[in-house]
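Review session, final week

We close the course with one last complete record, chosen because it touches almost every idea we covered. It is Fructose-1,6-bisphosphatase class 1, a protein from Comamonas avium with 338 residues. Go through it on your own first, then we will talk.
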Amino acid sequence: MTRRVSLTRYLVEQQRVDGRIPPQLRLLLEVVARACKRISFAVNKGELGEVMGTAGSENVQGEVQKKLDIIANETLIEANEWGGHLAAMASEEMEGIYVVPNRYPQGEYLLMFDPLDGSSNIDINMSIGTIFSVLKKHDSHPGVHDSDFMQPGTQQVAAGYCIYGPQTTLVLTVGDGVAMFTLDREQGSFILIEENVKIPEDTKEFAINMSNMRHWDEPMKRYIDECLAGEDGPRGKNFNMRWVAAMVADVHRILCRGGVFMYPWDKREPHKSGKLRLMYEANPMSWLIEQAGGAATNCRERILDIQPTELHQRVSVVLGSKNEVERVTRYHLEADQK
C-alpha cells in the first residue's frame, strides 16, 4: 500500500463521510480494538504468561472455561465500562447482562461479544479470536433490560472480529462493506490492509465437522454427499474440506478466499435449534458475510431476520459464498414440503 491508514484515521474518515459513524460509536470501536490488542498480547505469551489451561469453572452454557476465556471477558468489560459510550454489555461467558455501573456515565450503545471464540484451540497454538456486535439502545424507557438486546441482526450498527493467528487481524463493518486491519506491533496500532472485501459467489471449499454427519438432517447429508462425490457426482466438480474448529478462523478464510461454513442442527439435542449463539456469533458473522456479498441462513431463513427471544439463544448456521448457501437452504426447504 502507498499509504498506511490506521484504524483511528479510517474511522475518523468514515465519520466525516455523510456522518456514517457517529462520534460515540467511533470511540467505542477504538476501545474495543484496544481491548483486542491486549487480549492478543495475552494470547501470544502462552505459557510464559501463565494463562494456559482450564480455570476450573463453567460458563452459562455449561462449558469448561479456559483461563484465557475469563481474562478476555474481563479485559473487554474493564476497557469498555467507563468510557461513557455504553449502556450495557452481554457476553457468551456471562449469564445476564452487565449494566454500566452508576459511577460511570451511560451511553446509548449495547455491546455483545464472544470474548474468545475457539478456546479449545488455545492449548494447541491454533487461531482463535474475539467476536463483537454493537446495537443501539431504544430510548423508550429508563434503565437497561434484557429486552433491549432482543433486536434482530438487521439492527446492528457495527460488528466484527479480531483473529489471533500468525498476524492479529481486525475485521470490521459499520454497514458499508468490510474492512480488514492488521496489528503493527512496532507501531502499536491496527493498519488498514483491505477495503471492500468481496466473497466469490461460487466455491469448491466447505467447512463442517464431518464427525457429526450421522446426526444431521437428511438435506445436510444430501449436500455433503454431493460435494464428496466430486466431479463424477451431480455437482461436477471436486470440493476441498477445511475445518479449524473455531468459527472466527473458518469465517476469516471465507472472507479471504470464499467457501461455505456450516454448523447445522443435529439429532443429539433435537430441542435446540443449533449450537452457535445467535447474538454473539451468528449475527455479527452473518452481517460481515452479507456485507462482503455472501449469504447467511439457519438452513431455512436469513439469520439477520431472526427475532431473538433470549440472550443465549442458539441457531443453526450456513454462511459464505452465496450460491452454495442458497443451495443448502433450498435443500432444507424442499425437504420441509415433502
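Two points worth writing down before the exam:
Residues 158 and 327 are 28 Å apart (CA to CA).
The longest strand covers residues 109-117.
Good luck, everyone.
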